[in-house]
Write a structure and sequence with these properties.
Elements (H helix, E strand, L loop, with lengths): L12 H12 L6 H17 L6
């Protein structure tokens, strides 16, 4: 049987402000990085036997 899921911690103060700024202003991903991610995704998808997507 699975263990119970622990309560999610709540951020306060400077950590909360930093987290919010990171969520509002994500770092851009280069076109080369996106292409590599898609290439890896397609490779793994081609290896999947019973994929329904």
């Amino acid at each position: 049987m699975a263990r119970p899921i622990k309560e999610t911690p709540i951020l306060f103060g400077e950590e909360a402000r930093r987290f919010e700024m990171l969520m509002l202003n994500p770092q851009p991903v280069s076109a080369e990085r996106k292409a590599r991610i898609m290439s890896d995704y397609e490779f793994l998808r081609s290896r999947c036997v019973n994929c329904a997507f």
